[in-house]
Amino acid sequence: MTLSSPKPRPLIAGNWKMNGLAQALDQARAVAAGLDEKPAGARVAICPPATLLDRLSQALEGSAVLTGGQDCHVKTSGAHTGDIAAPMLVDAGAALVILGHSERRDDHGETSALVAAKVETALTAGLEPIICVGESLQQREAGSALAVVTGQVRESLPAVLAGQAFAVAYEPIWAIGTGRVATLPDIEEMHAAIRAELVVLFGDHGATVPILYGGSVKPDNAAEILRTAEVGGALVGGASLKASDFLAIIAAA
Fold this sequence. Notes:
Blueprint: E1 11-15, H1 25-37, E2 43-47, H2 50-59, E3 65-69, H3 86-91, E4 96-99, H4 102-108, H5 112-125, E5 128-133, H6 137-141, H7 145-156, E6 167-170, H8 184-202, E7 211-214, H9 222-226, E8 233-236, H10 243-252
Parallel strand pairs: 1-2, 1-8, 2-3, 3-4, 4-5, 5-6, 6-7, 7-8
Helix pairs in contact: 1-10, 5-7, 7-8
C-alpha cells in the first residue's frame, strides 16, 4: 500500500489481544454506529483475535472502521502449525497488521530482525504494518530507554517501507495494562527520538509517518496524550474492548 497523503490522518487502532468471543462483535458494531453518527477526524481500526477477524470484517463492511491482524508469519504458507500468514489476514478482510508487539517479543522471543522480515511479508500481501517498539522498566531505570527504542526502530523497519503506508507504535512495556502511563515529557522525548530516526531512515517520508502511543490509553488521558508533539495516534488495548471508551478516545484525536 503506497502512501498517498503527504501527512496521514491520525490512526486510532484497537488491539483486542487474546480477548473477545462472538458477543464482542456487538461492541465493534457500536463503534461503527457511533462513527456513522459522528465521523472521526482519525482513521480507526480494530485488531481482534484471529478467530473473530473474518466475522468482524463482515460486520464492519462499509463502515469507517478498518480491521487488522495482531501478527503474521514471515512465510506466506507452509508447515507452520498454529501460525497465520499475511495473505490469510487479507482474505479475512484485514487492511492492517500489528507486528513486533512487546508481548510477541517477550512471549515468543521475536527479534527485531524477525519483525523486519514480517514487515516485508505484510507489505507484499498488501497490509499496512503497525510496528511496535518499547522499553522495559529495567531499561528505563537504567537510562537506556532511548537507545533501546531507537535501536528497535533501526532494526525492525526494513528499507522497503520507503514510500509505503505504515505506523510506528511506541509502547513503554511497563505501562501496558498496568494503569501506569509515561509522563507527557517522557512521551514527547521518545516520540521526538523516534521521529529523528525515521527521518534518518526515510527522509521526508519519515517526517510524516504516524507515531502512535500505546500504554494504558484511556478516555480520561487520551486528549492530553494525543495533543503531545509527534503523537500521531494511539494503539489502544483494554479500553478498545468497550465501545463507549474507544469512541471517547477516538473523539479526542
